[in-house]
# Entry
Amino acid sequence: MSQFNRFITIGVLNTFIGYGLFVLFLREFLLSAALSNFLSYSIIIIFSYFIYGKFVFGNKKTKPFSSLLYLISFLFALSCNQIVLNIFLRMTPFPPEICQIFGMITYTIIFYYLNKKYVY
# Structure
């Protein structure tokens, strides 16, 4: 299985957890789409760092500053996700749950590239 396919496979697990949390925060706690999105990603970031490092990028030993680079990559990809989410919320009739799907796609592509190039 290629590295990108492993990234996507692990990402599916993260997506189910993250999207479930997004909907929970949005519908049950009545938080805004942006805050629900931020909180859901923030909760799974630590789990993701270790699982991507071990199962996707095969790291036995982390690079210096890899956790900081991971955090910066995460924040950048999340910011792009938030921008796409807000664009879709403002410019389409779709509900937040659908708009977030487009944000997640953006996040995944950017986050994979940054992890491959800089973090691991």
In short: The chain has one domain: 3-119. Helices lie at 3-28, 33-56, 66-91, 96-119.
